[in-house]
Specification:
Elements: H1 13-51, E1 53-58, H2 66-78, E2 83-88, H3 91-102, E3 114-120, H4 128-138, E4 143-145, H5 148-190, H6 192-200, H7 205-244, H8 248-258, H9 268-293
Helix pairs in contact: 1-5, 1-7, 1-8, 1-9, 2-4, 5-9, 7-8, 7-9
Length: 294
């Protein structure tokens, strides 16, 4: 039973439909926002790992002494400013890298290059152009891999996926506006007799619009909260799934949303915008529609 003064009952069918549809829209919006944050966080983590290390490759040639070449390169690296640590990887490490591509059979017969893992300072990185020249001066066959190409590809992928997520958000917003317009008209048509009685009783359009707008504000906020809760529960499940699964995306979701490794909760503020935007969207759209029909 509606309380005295309720022009539109809470249990009105058009409002229930609007809550359901807007809750789904808000849920999808939360997923889209989460996807953007998740992609950016995952790419930032992967790019950070790539930028903090470089690799020196030394081909195996019968005409050269591999041990002597490795020692010469290590000496150059240790004397380079910005290099924090140098580790010579054994042949088995190189075999593990190529095994997924060509299989394990016959690897011992292939001239797999030896690798040197170099950890660089993120704040003061070495001059890689000069470093590569110094390495090739010491060993002419040495090659320096800075992983810059992979980092660039990762960031390009992140930009593309972020753009797609933004377009999804735009489409969700347009759909939500259309639904609020139809719901507003349906609510007014269903309660036209009540509005006419209020007009006869002396109520002006401002009072009627205010009462109806309050109902739509509550409706938009409720739908936003439901959608937000559903989206966060989805990411919560993904985050806890990542605790037991060795999955990069799941680990990023865990660190981004519910188990932040560095106490960074600022990303959660983006999700709080969803119910706020849903409320404002319902208010503005219903008010404009209401003014045209009154």
């Amino acid at each position: 039973m509606a309380k005295p003064g309720d022009i539109i009952p809470r249990a009105a069918a058009p409002l229930r439909t609007l809550v359901s549809v807007m809750a789904v829209m808000c849920f999808l919006a939360v997923l889209a926002v989460g996807a953007m944050l998740l992609i950016n966080r995952a790419v930032a983590q992967w790019a950070s790992g790539l930028s903090s290390e470089v690799t020196v490759q030394v081909p195996q040639l019968s005409t050269r002494d591999m041990d002597a070449d490795l020692q010469a390169l290590t000496k150059v690296l240790e004397q380079t400013k910005g290099v924090k640590a140098v580790t010579i990887l054994d042949r088995a490490a190189g075999e593990k890298l190529v095994a997924p591509w060509i299989g394990e059979d016959g690897l011992d017969l292939l001239p797999i290059p030896r690798l040197i893992r170099v950890v660089v300072d993120d704040k003061v990185q070495p001059d890689f152009v000069a470093l590569e020249k110094d390495l090739q001066t010491a060993v002419t066959t040495a090659r320096l891999d800075t992983h810059r190409r992979w980092e660039s590809e990762l960031r390009r992928m992140a930009s593309t996926l972020t753009l797609l997520s933004s377009l999804v958000l735009v489409l969700i917003s347009i759909s939500a506006v259309a639904m609020v317009i139809f719901a507003s008209r349906a609510v007014l048509e269903a309660n036209r007799n009540v509005v006419e009685v209020l007009h006869i009783a002396g109520a002006d359009d401002g009072f009627i619009a205010g009462e109806i707008n309050r109902r739509f504000i509550a409706t938009g906020f409720l739908a936003g909260v439901i959608g937000l809760a559903g989206g966060l529960l989805t990411f919560l499940a993904l985050g806890y799934w990542g605790v037991t699964e060795n999955n990069g995306v799941a680990s990023a979701a865990r660190g981004l949303f519910f188990l932040p490794q560095e106490g960074d909760w600022r990303s959660l503020s983006w999700f709080l915008l969803v119910p706020m935007v849903a409320t404002v969207l319902a208010l503005i759209t219903s008010r404009l529609t209401l003014k045209r029909m009154l």
